[in-house]
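re: the backbone from monday

yeah here it is again, tokenized this time
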């Protein structure tokens, strides 16, 4: 992921899976206010529109940005 410092690809699992340990790690308390979560496509992040809204709200509450490349 050219142009991003500390970029770490972390998950190749389907968004339909209920358990996504790598996503849980990426959203763990180690991600801080001012950080930015970068994903390749929106459909790779959430299992449904509701799930995406919940994740987006949780990131926003923590002042963590979300950047979608496609």
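seq for it, each position gets an aa:
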């Amino acid at each position: 992921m050219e142009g991003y410092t500390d970029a770490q690809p972390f998950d190749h699992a389907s968004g339909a899976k209920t358990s996504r340990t790598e996503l849980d790690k990426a959203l763990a308390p180690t991600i801080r206010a001012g950080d930015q979560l970068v994903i390749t496509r929106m459909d790779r992040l959430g299992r449904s529109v509701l799930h995406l809204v919940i994740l987006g709200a949780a990131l926003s509450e923590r002042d963590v940005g979300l950047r979608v490349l496609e």
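The radius of gyration is 12 Å. The mean pLDDT is 78.
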